Amino acid sequence: FANIALTDNVVRFATRRYCDNPLIVQGPGAGPEVTAGGVFADLLRLSAYLGARF
């Protein structure tokens, strides 16, 4: 992971098939503003699911 940019997203899949050499998927991230917006939207959705009223 030493060669990734700070804004990249990286997912590592370690499965039976990929146990010795895990599958790594890497690509550009959305950036801090978009990520924060997504997290906030998820929190609102969770709050509504738990019964909060806005």
TrEMBL record:
It is an enzyme of class 1 (oxidoreductase). InterPro entries: Bifunc_Aspkin/hSer_DH, HDH_cat. The keyword NADP applies. One of its GO terms (biological process) is homoserine biosynthetic process. Keywords: NADP, Oxidoreductase. It holds the Pfam family Homoserine_dh. This is Homoserine dehydrogenase, catalytic domain protein.
